[in-house]
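Tutorial sheet, problem 5. The two components below are modelled jointly, 810 residues in total.
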Amino acid sequence: MSRINENFLKLPGSYLFSTVGRKVREYQEANPDKRIIRLGIGDVTLPLPPAVIGALHAAVDEMSVQDTFRGYAPDLGYEFLRSAIAEHDFKSRGVDISIEEVFVSDGAKSDSANIQEIFSADAKIAVCDPVYPVYVDSNVMAGRTGIYDIAAGRWSNVIYMPCTAENGFIPDLPQQVPDLIYLCFPNNPTGAALKKEQLQNWVDYANRNKAVIVFDAAYEAYISQADVPHSIYECEGAKTCAVELRSFSKNAGFTGTRLAYTIVPKELVVDGVALCGLWARRHGTKFNGAPYIIQKAGEAVYSEEGKKQVAEMVGYYMNNAKVILDGLKAAGYTVSGGVDSPYVWLKTPKGMGSWEFFDYLLEQANVVGTPGAGFGPSGEGYFRLTGFGSYDNTAEAIERIRRLV
Amino acid sequence: MSRINENFLKLPGSYLFSTVGRKVREYQEANPDKRIIRLGIGDVTLPLPPAVIGALHAAVDEMSVQDTFRGYAPDLGYEFLRSAIAEHDFKSRGVDISIEEVFVSDGAKSDSANIQEIFSADAKIAVCDPVYPVYVDSNVMAGRTGIYDIAAGRWSNVIYMPCTAENGFIPDLPQQVPDLIYLCFPNNPTGAALKKEQLQNWVDYANRNKAVIVFDAAYEAYISQADVPHSIYECEGAKTCAVELRSFSKNAGFTGTRLAYTIVPKELVVDGVALCGLWARRHGTKFNGAPYIIQKAGEAVYSEEGKKQVAEMVGYYMNNAKVILDGLKAAGYTVSGGVDSPYVWLKTPKGMGSWEFFDYLLEQANVVGTPGAGFGPSGEGYFRLTGFGSYDNTAEAIERIRRLV
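Model answer (structure tokens):
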């Protein structure tokens, strides 16, 4: 008799973004004349850059002719893309990553959800609070997280590392030592970034305790300050304790095009076993490579033209973030993020709850953001706005918020 | 201290196709003047059909303009594709599948590897022998399969269902009742197909025993006989016991383009829980949708033009399969498959082992096939050839084999 994986039933029922979507829909239906501006989601809005579009068309043409048609891709990615990644994302920053350490995939969401598979069933995980929900939910499904306390919004067997104004949204090293540490910097949702010596502390802690860091660097392209590392491998010793997740979504606008990669260094050995071998086996068994045409699009991101166009897109979004940051500051809000990240994290005014402020902003300014509490209990009393909208909408939204005060 | 998932270490080390690749490479290096013909792999060789190419170019153009750019896709697939699937693959055959039961993904390999996640950790699986390795390997990684007996080539906690000449390559219903039954028909590697009443037997067995069938119909497009069902849902009661995997790889040539889908009927309830909800949650947490441009390419497969072009491609490969089947028969080989499938399964002559025949064919005819033993112990003494090559190569390969006799 078949039985289900009961861990799935432990997952809390409502999704943050579906609740947001429902509330916005209901408000719009009740107020059809209002023009709602959405600064809530983390999705990009600019079209793919011309270099990428050109590469896609060329690759499609290759697929139309027998001589250049491509069947099954290598499970781990085409060499042309893996070598472009190693060269432009790492060697150019003085980090030596070989192409065998680059594992191409269909997205950082998939990678961040799947990476737990190569660790033991009783691995204890540590996550920032607030946090991107996939890290925890994928471990819930694997049965690692214990019991969910609805009132506290926390799992009994997860180490939470609060990121609040008190610690500048930078987590403290946990007292109880985890086996697996998820770190996302520049951070979603707070927009905080780690300086090199702060990240070095984490690397040293992980090496000291034989823990593994899953370093999610999806927002790396948004780093503007010189002392913020773009890769964890800029820190000494990181290759023996960290995997790094990267994405083409937020730099080159691939959220709907799907391409990402994970670095698993050869030196990363657990229980005497190199994790890169386990990850390769996982890819080889459960994944069949990213589409050829999408990998060619990824390669074009590293062309001279592509790099310039991507930098312009990132600049556009970062200008929006600055508009939000400066505008809210001028309006008396307490804000952070927005400097090395497209996310601005604001303290809700007058002690309002996150969801209370969500309703207030939706109804009074017709602006949609994301309640901080949706990312974890330490997000309560905070609110996320993103720079991924259009400039005109962003500027108008901030003007509307300023008029509220 | 971090620990690995030790189940990964239980996996046998060598891959079937990498061993094949190494042997071919070594032979070619030693004999650079020989022209080797490869009829071993299951990869397509014809370019993408024009309707698909046109849809890809159009979708790329949409991604280049802000107004038509698409960011994150719906996790479960765009409605335009899900409704085309429900209409053309099911309703047109009298099977009522709603779009909420269609889950679009990046490939049937991923789906067939991931589907086990929604079942209990102690689920007992049954597989055909010989079999596509992913079904078993994904369960090995999840810790369900017990201990591997190298000599027997079998796991202690897996129910094997031999498919041999004695049963016409159609498995018998297992004595010990499994929880999860993997069936792939038309079959890879044997090329055998199930008649409707044979598949109905399996559906009845699964319903009687509350087992779930994972029905892999990746080769559905190759069915030529009227009494062979294209979908398991043509059988009465299948919606309460079966999920079905489909792929765009083998019909429309998407092996390097990556698109597939799984049907999870609403009526499929295990432990009082609808599996479609669990699978949706799995997709929502661990997958971020197939690329927009690839989903548009999938939609084009269902256009009038696309259907015609796909039928031509399938016809081309099936003609190759017929050339192999007829040629080998005429040469005195015992062969099966090749009628509802691009795969021809032949009995090795003179009691040769599978690998012995592989070497013999490589050295004497410079033709590459796949040793049956690579798919499981009951594949010993058999050999797989595929219709996915070019016509000229296929005809020449068969001529070379005939000359051997």
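Marking note: Residues 52-304 of chain B form a domain with the Aspartate Aminotransferase; domain 2 fold (CATH 3.40.640.10). Full credit if you identified this.
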